[in-house]
Amino acid sequence: MSVNETLQKRQHIRRIVFILMALSVILPLIFKIGLPLKTTKEVRDVFEFIDSLPEGSAVVFSFDHDTATLPEMIPLAEALLRHSFRKNLRVLGLALLAEGAAIGDDNFRRIGNEFGKVYGEDYIFWGFRPQVTVAMLGLGEDISRVFPSDYYGKDVQSYPVMEGIDSYDDIAGVISIADGDMPVHWINYAQARYGVNVIPAVTAVMATTMYPFLQSGQIAGLAAGLRGAAEYEMLLGKPGRAARGMDAQSSAHLLIIGLIIAGNVLMIIERRRK
Amino acid sequence: MHRKLPMYICFLFGAFMLVQFFIPHRTSTAIYETILDWVQIIYAFSLLVGVALLIKHHAIIATRPSAKDRPYSGIVLGGIIGMFIFGIFFGRGEDTAFLWVFKYVQAPMQATMFSLLSFFVASAAFRGFRARNTQAVFLLVAALIVMLGRVPVGDMISGFIPKAADWLLNVPSMAARRGIYIGIALGTISTSLRVILGIERTYLGGSRG
Q1: Which of A23, A95, A114, B182 would disulfide-bridge A101, Cβ 3.0–4.6 Å?
Q2: Within this chain, do residues A93 and A25 fall inside the same structural domain, yes or no?
Q3: Residue A244 falls inside a structural domain
Q4: Distance between CA A249 and CA A126 in Å, rounded?
Q5: Interface predicted TM-score (ipTM) of this complex, two decimals
Q6: Is B152 in Cβ contact with A246 (below 8 Å)?
Q7: CA A58 – CA A160 distance, rounded (Å)
Q8: Out of A134, A141, A204, whose CB is closest to B39?
Q9: Shared domain check, A111 and A80
Q10: Taking all residues of chain A, what is their mean pLDDT, rounded to a whole number?
Q11: Chain-centroid distance, C-alpha A244
């Protein structure tokens, strides 16, 4: 077989693989399968932590991700926000990545409206701050020094929702919705130094980064990836977009496993031929 | 002196931030809070410098007739200027041009780029993930178990698969991860001490440090 033919064959195989991958994601989203899903302890821990908070407790949502990972992050943020609003907690938000500011504000308003919550009375979005470590440390001393004004430029302390909230001492927990290792910074600077509870809600690939902190008890729980969001939706009793996405994820994983096996079988056959 | 002064400042502030953790006095806390404010202000200005350099770089390309990447630089400049105008003059909240562009232009584009990964992962899985030696066999088996164990279909095949996946993540993977964390922590401490004590000087610029 000439080099040209080999390259053409490879291109052909790539195209087939791409088409199979597209179908394995699209078809389960169109034709619902509804595979049963069991909840894991780490997600139940997050749910129970928020569920155990008394009404009016303050929780901080930190949107520490960019738009590339929105399909995985938004179901997590939505599920956690819905639970917090349902429990009538005071929901405070910030972003430590610039893109997180618009994402966070949009989610706060959208989910807040679902529950009839009022901006400034039930929830507030402080906005974006650069230099994560300093922002995290500063919040432990005086929130209004780090965020004198909110996302819309109004004095943070003028909002009723901020009444009695000055530092981490007045906050029940920080939920970091992150696609990187930002929760590790929250653990290092906010949890270790000020003792605030940290709950990472991260992409699936970041889950292994969080397990050592989960095992050592430095985080209150862990919700990771689309699966974490789907489990949380189940615990809330309202399966949503994450639960639907799990079928697509299952079929995509199965396809990749099938491709790995097929690739190895072909390798063995070729070896025997030689 | 132009090299020594930054070193003295670095030592002074580095040593203070190290010591103040153990001094919960009012004065110590007040200085600590002031330093945190300063760092934020300096960082905000460094962001401005970054944006200015980005604009300068792309303005040079966009105005050079022979540059083949002119259209891309034009798009970058248009994006920066457009979003600046939308954000500053028309607001950033609900029903604004800023949020519309962010939600319906930037977010889908970035998500599309990221989702292309799945196609390349699938292609690479078929062509590159081969059991050529014993280590590769271990890696392959571990990957298959974790991939199956993390989706509902794994539990449907056998209850053993999710348990095996959890064990892989909680024991061998965790052991490696802890080792990495301890290494990072020790490296961070030693590098910080070298910077504070003026042994590590590369941040001052120049090749000799």
Answers
A1: A95
A2: no
A3: no
A4: 34
A5: 0.81
A6: yes
A7: 12
A8: A134
A9: yes
A10: 92
A11: 16
- Check B94 against A109: CB less than 8 A apart: yes
Note whether A130 contacts B44, CB cutoff 8 Å: yes
Do A185 and A136 meet the contact criterion of CB atoms below 8 Å apart?
Answer: yes
Q: What is the pLDDT of residues A198-243, one digit of tens each?
A: 999 999 999 989 999 999 999 999 999 999 999 999 999 988 889 8
Tokens matching residue A13: 């195989």
Residues A208 and B142: their CA atoms lie apart, in Å, by 14
Look-up of token digits 């590098």? B191
Closest-CA distance, B9 to chain A, in angstroms, reads: 18
In a domain, A55, yes or no: yes
How many domains does one find in chain A? 2
A116-136: average pLDDT: 93
> Containing H/E element for B166?
helix B160-170
State how far the Cα of B20 lies from the Cα of B31, in Å rounded to an integer. Answer: 9
The encoded tokens of residue A51 equal 């569920």
Question: Above 70 in pLDDT, residue B208?
Answer: no
pLDDT bucket at B206, cuts 50 / 70 / 90: low
* Rounded Cα gap, residues A70 and B107, in angstroms: 8
Tell me, yes or no, whether A217 and A156 share the same domain. yes
Lookup: tokens for B194: 């070298």
What φ, ψ does residue A251 adopt, rounded to 5°? -70, -35
CA–CA distance, A187 with A192 (Å, rounded to integer): 6
Nearest-10 crossing angle of helices B26-62, B70-90: 130
Write out the DSSP string of chain A: --HHHHHHHHHHHHHHHHHHHHHHHHHHHHS------PPPHHHHHHHHHHHTSPTT-EEEEEEE--GGGHHHHHHHHHHHHHHHHHTT-EEEEEESSHHHHHHHHHHHHHHHHHTT--BTTTEEEEEE-SSHHHHHHHHHH-HHHH-SB-TTS-BGGGSGGGTT--SGGG-SEEEEEESSSHHHHIIIIIIHHH--EEEEEE-GGGHHHHHHHHHTT-SS--EEHHHHHHHHHHHHT---HHHHHHHHHHHHHHHHHHHHHHHHHHHHHHHHH-
pLDDT digits (tens, 9 = 90+) for B140-176: 999 999 988 888 888 888 889 999 998 999 899 999 9
Residue from the list B155, B162, B173 with its beta carbon closest to the beta carbon of A208: B173
